[in-house]
Write a sequence for this structure.
C-alpha cells in the first residue's frame, strides 16, 4: 500500500470515529456562510492529518483533549504547527471544553479568521 493511500485510509478512519466535540464543531463549520470557507474533516496535509482544514484559505483547526497538555504532546503540537505554518497554513487550536462550553466564542474566532484569510486568499 502506498503512503498516500495509507494516509487517505487513516483519515477516513478518523472521520468515522470523531470525538463528540469534533462532531459538534463540524456541524457548525458546515454552516459557515462565508464564500471560500469550505472545510474538510480529518484532512491529510503532508505527514499529518488535521481535524479540520480549508485548503483554499490555508487554515487548520484542531480540537485538543487533555492529553495535549502534557509536555510530550505540547512539543509534538509545536513541531506540527511549525511545519504547517511553513506550508502557509494558519493553525487555530481549541480545547474540548471550549467547544463544549464556549461554542459561540470559538465560532466568533473562527469566523474572524476565515474572513481575514478569505480577503487574503480569495480576493487576490
Amino acid at each position: 500500500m502506498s503512503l498516500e493511500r495509507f494516509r487517505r485510509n487513516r483519515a477516513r478512519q478518523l472521520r468515522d470515529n470523531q470525538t463528540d466535540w469534533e462532531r459538534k464543531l463540524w456541524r457548525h463549520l458546515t454552516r459557515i456562510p462565508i464564500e471560500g470557507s469550505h472545510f474538510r474533516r480529518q484532512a491529510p496535509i503532508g505527514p499529518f492529518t488535521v481535524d479540520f482544514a480549508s485548503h483554499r484559505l490555508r487554515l487548520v483547526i484542531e480540537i485538543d483533549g487533555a492529553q495535549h497538555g502534557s509536555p510530550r504532546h505540547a512539543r509534538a503540537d509545536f513541531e506540527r504547527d511549525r511545519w504547517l505554518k511553513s506550508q502557509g497554513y494558519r493553525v487555530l487550536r481549541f480545547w474540548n471544553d471550549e467547544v463544549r462550553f464556549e461554542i459561540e466564542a470559538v465560532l466568533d474566532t473562527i469566523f474572524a479568521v476565515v474572513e481575514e484569510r478569505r480577503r487574503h486568499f480569495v480576493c487576490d
The mean pLDDT is 84.
